[in-house]
Amino acid sequence: MAWLVGPAFLAVAIHGTGLWAIRRFRLSERGHAVLHVLLEADEPILRNRIEADQELAVARQGRLDHLPKFAEARSWIARRADLIVDTTRLTPGQVADHVWDTARERIE
Predict the structure, then answer these.
(1) Which domain of life is it from (predicted)?
(2) pTM of the entire predicted model
């Protein structure tokens, strides 16, 4: 990740605290500011979004199968998150704007 210059957004699904700690440390030691954002939605909404996603249809069942793991990991992720965004009633654009506004405040 030494090639990163300026702000970068990394979308990563992490189920364990150890992997997250390593990634955060490696980014931080290279001088990158880290804003840990938890994007969440009610489970019925998540299921509907996954089932309606045509671009990742081949991964649909795997994504649905992982919902319990995400629910289980949510508590530790939320404790470590710098920002939690409930996306249940937001458009992708609204979510992106909110995250960017928060990130910009921290990096400026």
Answers:
(1) Bacteria
(2) 0.77
CA 65 to chain CA centroid, Å, is 18
In the chain, which ranges are E strands?
37-40, 83-86
Question: Number of folded domains in the chain?
Answer: 1
For the segment 69-88, the average pLDDT, to the nearest whole number, is: 90
DSSP H helix total and E strand total for the chain: 5, 2
Higher pLDDT, 16 or 99: 99
Torsion (CA) 34, 26, 14, 6 in degrees, nearest 10: 40
